[in-house]
Design brief:
The complex is a heterotrimer of chains A (372), B (318) and C (383). Chain B is built from four helices and 19 strands. Chain B has 318 residues and is mainly beta. Chain B folds into two domains: 27-162, no CATH class; 176-317, no CATH class. With 383 residues, chain C is an alpha/beta fold. In chain C, the strands form two sheets. A nine-stranded mixed β-sheet of chain C has the order 3-2-4-7-1-8-11-10-9, with helices on both faces. In chain C, 35% of the residues lie in helices and 19% in strands. Classes of the chains: A alpha/beta (372), B mainly beta (318), C alpha/beta (383). Chains in contact: A-B, A-C, B-C. At the B-C interface, β1, α1, β11, β15 and β16 of B face α1, α2, α4, α5 and β5 of C.
């Protein structure tokens, strides 16, 4: 390595991810997460050089929603910017800033409370308003079409959808950060009503409320603060065309491009990574992402779960998708697995892939590679 | 495991809020022409001259190359089904119009899911009346015998639609949380305004919050504030705009309640509005006038009004 | 450690009250084409795109970067949106700057736009307010801005006449700006007699509502020569905030702006801004803010802004010209405005500001901001 501009994650905190935090406001979730993050991190608020945050005006029901949450974020009189995309993109901004030598410690925050708004409209309002929105095209329709394409064009198997969901919920039920409730059985999932055929009820990711925050630090500071800094060795992102129908069917090309960029930067071979935390917005989508990341052959996404890389030990996004924070939660989960691998039944952990997505039918993707 | 603060039990139903926007959108040349031409039952696509690629319905930029050298064309009304799904909105399909290089999404009508096969021929179904929108085509129906159509030049294209009304309503149910919950319970049940002690200096933060913005340490005990205060800033509103709650003129005021170190936003009334800018100034002492309603919101304060005796006393002192 | 970053291409649309010939995507494309042409590049030369817009409720499309990506030619490139209220254009440029300074990319396209004619401006801005705490009283951000101007009048002497002089100066300068759409000669008396909207803010204290887009190409030092032998080098840039209802928040001098200026001046070696800068571009959502910025940016001491404008020093031929482009008074597509200020500052040090060029401008200051007057950024550019 020897790169003086390396940046590491030195601390993570998050709220429980719940279907609804009906007894808390955004600011309550944010301020308690940041407070918890600082506790025991060795970092005082005054040490933090900047804050980059992710959230959505449309989900929050406020314009410039960061503006009203600055105090809760601990951002008062600091440099601050809002990245209105999943928090993994905010982390990417923060890493660039530290790598540029402009700062030593950065606070990255992502949150959402989809329980307060209409998630279907959050997505539908992203769709171009002249041709697509009027016919009822939305995230559900895109995900259904994508799942069908995955089977018909990508070589995937519809029978695997329910299996992926069962596995995700089982993993999530062992994850103290996710409020799961009743884990649906395979039969329940496989016989569930269609929401966007061939996708059934549990096969779409479940929106949840929550907040996550991480601390980033420059190499010197990271070594001082943490016995096990998690180094970000590569980053890549890419956005596909807006219109779902013109994207390459059966695969997620933007994810492939993002992964290639991250791997080129870090020199990581995806077949050798210890673990991966990925964000799929549907059961089919998760498998397609695993394929795009090189963790499985095309059409064989399900094989990845039985491979040498531990996939989504957290449960992933299917049981808990705090929109805008999902990818940053993946980063936090990966960091925990890398710093205390024993808690997750892992040993000899060296590297990880973290993935985030955004948009209707997973239009945009961001990929990190990590090392300890 | 982190839990949100639970300093006060909350059983308030969430605050309902609706944002109701009336947009007027300009579709641009390609979509704007498309929307007018559908009224003439012409289905308009676009060909990018540099890439040669055809897109239906028409787009201003080539979806593959981004090329802006676009010529508009008339597309056939038939094509092939390339994919489909069913949601609460009905059956939505990706369709490749004959001669086009890209798919697009529209509804499938007059069929159920089991009838559909990828590769099936489909044909546009025109709506009875034009609304200058993509819905001038109600959808596509199965048409096994639809002949393969061809892209043709568009003669005498209509002027593009300059703008289209687009209303959008966004509905929210905002949780109160422990701090706002107690604040508004106290306002609603006792007409009492409560804040919490700042931990970055002397004084009370209102609205109350768990963490002091400046010290970022937990705030202190709950404190009852008087309903009197001082105007820190004010303006006289004459502007009318969509979404406004009160007809102008009125006074927009930022008020610091006695003992508070943050601002409360409200209106000031009970004065001769023609002399508003003389009668209310930064420094003017004001008092809340409570409404008879007890809704547990800021509107339980009807308005603020100047405290005459104090203000005249101040004037004398000066 | 940090790599030098320069602005090597700039472009903006001819702004208008309403463009009924292009969609939001088409508007964006015009600015992108101009910036790329100015940088002698094509979109293939661009590694990454940052898109900045005003709050999404200004328009009907949520996450609008995911719509306009195709118009930018951004398919399969990194594309991300940064948003920060009215200052979003500068905040977007800052994100792009770090993508290069941190070594992730060599060339970044930053695009900013708003098509305000399509929405309900004051209503949308009013949703900035907490739905529980004061939203029903919001008048966009105009009622608030006017209220604290009123407070500054008493303490700092920012009179209605002084603000009117800002309006007169910026309107006059806009006459020379080919991209401005408000072209009108006005007097102090006209401003004073104009209709009150949120007194003390009157009609002629308020910029127009505009449709417009702007774009810049940022480049590493290594790649800059392909585009120009005279980039506008970024000597410092920062964007600070203030908690909107923190204890004892002062609205008199903008603390986040003063903080940003202090930090950026230190990086850029600025010790005497009034003498060192050849030109300044500020984003004045209302005339009263330009007076306040003079003080927060250190162009004069607190309480001296009215004197500074009255002295003529900030006129286009003064010793510290502010907004030779006309500022927001000529055009104000809010999401783009911060980037337009940066573009105008860059054009000055690149020597391509045309009729409003300040002779031999070598060092320029750009300011931008938004929200509750609590999001504030500055950039220092040099030839």
């Amino acid at each position: 390595m020897g790169n003086p501009n390396r940046v590491a994650v030195v601390a993570c905190a998050q709220t429980e991810l719940r279907a609804a935090w009906s007894n808390a406001q955004h600011v309550d979730l944010i301020s308690s997460t940041v407070s918890n993050l600082l506790k025991g991190s060795g970092v005082a608020l005054a040490d933090i050089d900047f804050v980059i945050d992710s959230g959505s005006d449309v989900l929050d029901g406020r314009s410039i929603s960061n503006c009203g949450f600055l105090g809760a974020m601990g951002a008062h009189h600091k440099e601050e910017s809002r990245v209105e995309e999943d928090g993994l993109w905010a982390a990417s901004y923060g890493i660039n800033k530290i790598a540029a030598g402009a700062a030593e410690i950065g606070l990255i925050i992502a949150y959402s409370k989809p329980s307060e708004s209409d998630v279907s409209l959050f997505y539908a309002s992203q769709v171009e308003p002249f041709y697509q929105r009027p016919v009822g095209f939305d995230h559900l329709a895109a995900s259904g079409l994508q799942a069908q394409q995955y089977v018909v064009r990508g070589g995937g198997r519809e029978a695997d959808f329910a299996k992926v969901v069962v596995r995700s919920w089982e993993k999530a039920s062992g994850n103290p950060h996710v409020a799961v409730g009743q884990v649906p059985s395979h039969d329940e999932i496989a016989a569930g009503e269609y929401v966007a055929s061939p996708l059934r009820r549990h096969m779409m990711s479940r929106p949840v409320d929550g907040c996550v925050a991480i601390l980033l630090a420059s190499a010197d500071v990271a070594r001082r603060l943490s016995a096990t800094p998690v180094w970000v060795t590569g980053m890549g992102s890419a956005m596909d065309s807006h219109a779902f129908a013109v994207r390459a069917p059966g695969r997620v090309e933007a994810c492939e491009v993002a992964a290639k960029a991250a791997f080129a930067r870090s020199g990581v071979d995806p077949r050798t990574v210890s673990l991966a935390e990925v964000s799929g917005s549907s059961a089919a989508g998760e498998m397609m992402v695993l394929e795009a990341l090189g963790l499985a052959k095309p059409g064989q996404g399900f094989e990845a779960y039985g491979g040498s890389t531990a996939i989504n030990l957290s449960g992933g996004a299917l049981p808990a998708d705090p929109i805008m924070a999902t990818g940053l939660v993946r980063l936090a989960e990966a960091c925990r697995q890398m710093t205390v691998p024993g808690d997750y039944g892992l040993s000899n952990v060296k590297s990880a892939i973290v993935h985030a997505t955004g948009g209707v039918g997973m239009q945009s993707h961001c990929v990190f590679t990590l090392e300890v | 495991m982190l839990q949100a603060p639970d300093t006060y039990p909350i059983d308030r139903p969430p605050l309902k809020s609706t944002i109701s926007m009336a947009y007027t959108l300009t579709p641009g040349r390609a979509a704007g022409t498309f929307m007018v031409e559908t009224g003439k039952r012409r289905f308009v696509g676009s060909r990018c001259v540099s890439s040669g690629l055809v897109c239906v319905p028409a787009q201003d930029f080539c979806p593959r190359t981004g090329g802006a050298d676009i010529e508009l064309v008339v597309a056939p009304e038939a094509g092939t089904l390339t994919g489909f799904t069913q949601t609460a909105a009905g059956i939505l399909a990706t369709i490749r119009i004959d001669g086009a290089d890209f798919d697009f999404v529209h509804k499938i009508v007059d069929s159920s899911l089991v009838d559909l096969k990828i590769g099936a021929r489909v044909q546009a179904v025109w709506a009875d009346a034009s609304t200058q929108s993509i819905l001038d085509i109600s959808g596509f129906q199965l048409a096994p015998n639809a002949p393969i159509g061809k892209i043709a030049p568009l003669s005498d294209p209509a002027d593009p639609l300059p703008m289209k009304p687009y209303p959008l309503d966004l509905h929210y149910e905002h949780a109160f949380g422990p701090f706002y919950g107690r604040l508004f319970d106290e306002i609603g049940s006792r007409h009492r305004i409560m804040g919490v002690r700042s931990t970055s200096g002397e004084g009370v933060l209102i609205p109350p919050r768990e963490f002091d913005d400046i010290s970022f340490t937990r705030t202190g005990t709950w404190v009852t504030l008087p309903d009197t205060g001082t105007v820190s800033a004010m303006s006289v509103i004459h502007l009318e705009f969509r979404g406004q709650k009160e007809p102008p003129p009125y006074i927009y005021a930022e008020i610091q309640l006695d003992g508070a170190v943050t601002r409360l936003i409200h209106s000031i009334k009970g004065i001769d509005m023609s002399r508003a800018s003389e009668l209310v100034k930064p420094g003017t002492r004001v008092r809340a006038v409570w409404s008879t309603s007890r809704t547990g919101s800021l509107s339980d304060i009807s308005h603020f009004e100047p405290i005459p005796e104090l203000n005249s006393a101040n004037a004398t002192d000066m | 450690m940090s790599r030098h970053v320069g602005i090597v291409g700039i472009g903006q649309t001819h702004h208008a009250r309403r463009r009924t010939d292009v969609s939001q995507a088409g508007l964006v494309r015009e600015a992108v084409d101009r910036a790329l042409a100015d940088a002698k590049l094509t979109i293939d030369d661009i590694d990454s795109i940052v898109i900045a817009t005003g709050p999404v409720l200004f328009a009907a499309v949520n996450m609008p970067e995911k719509w306009v990506v195709d118009a930018c030619g951004g398919r399969l490139k990194p594309v991300v949106r940064v948003t920060s209220g009215g200052g979003t254009g500068l905040a977007g440029a800052l994100a792009g700057y770090y993508q290069i300074a941190g070594g992730q990319h060599e060339r970044v396209l930053v695009v900013a736009y708003d098509k305000l004619s399509e929405g309900n401006l004051q209503y949308s801005i009013s949703t900035l307010y907490d739905p529980f705490w004061g939203r029903e009283f919001a008048v966009g951000i105009m009622g608030f801005s006017a209220a604290y101007w009123r407070a500054r009048m008493d303490v700092l002497g920012h009179t209605e006449e002084a603000a009117a002089m800002v309006s007169v100066k910026n309107h006059k300068n806009a006459l020379k700006n080919p991209y401005a759409h408000v072209k009108k000669v006005i007097t102090v008396d006209d401003v004073m007699k104009s209709r009150p909207l949120a007194w003390p803010i009157k009609l002629l204290d308020v910029p127009p509502i505009s449709d417009g887009a702007a774009a810049i190409v940022l480049s590493s030092e290594k790649m800059a020569a392909k585009s120009t032998d005279r980039p506008a080098w970024i000597r410092g840039m920062g964007y600070f905030c203030e908690a909107d209802n923190a204890a004892s928040r002062s609205m008199l001098v903008s603390e986040p702006l003063a903080l940003a200026a202090r930090r950026v001046y230190r990086a850029a070696g600025i010790t005497d801004p009034r003498r060192q800068f050849d030109v300044v571009e500020v984003q004045e959502p209302y005339t009263c803010f330009e007076l306040s910025y003079y003080e927060s940016l250190g162009l004069c001491a607190p309480g001296e802004a009215a004197e500074l404008i009255a002295s003529g020093a900030t006129e286009i031929d003064g010793d510290i010209p502010v907004n030779p482009s006309g500022g927001c008074m000529g055009a104000n597509p809010i999401g783009a405005t911060g980037l337009i200020r940066l573009i105008e500052a860059a054009a000055q040090v690149m020597g391509k500001a045309g009729d409003h060029q300040i002779p031999n401008a070598k060092l320029a200051l750009a300011q931008s901001g938004g929200g509750w007057a609590n999001l504030r950024g500055v950039a220092v550019l040099s030839a």
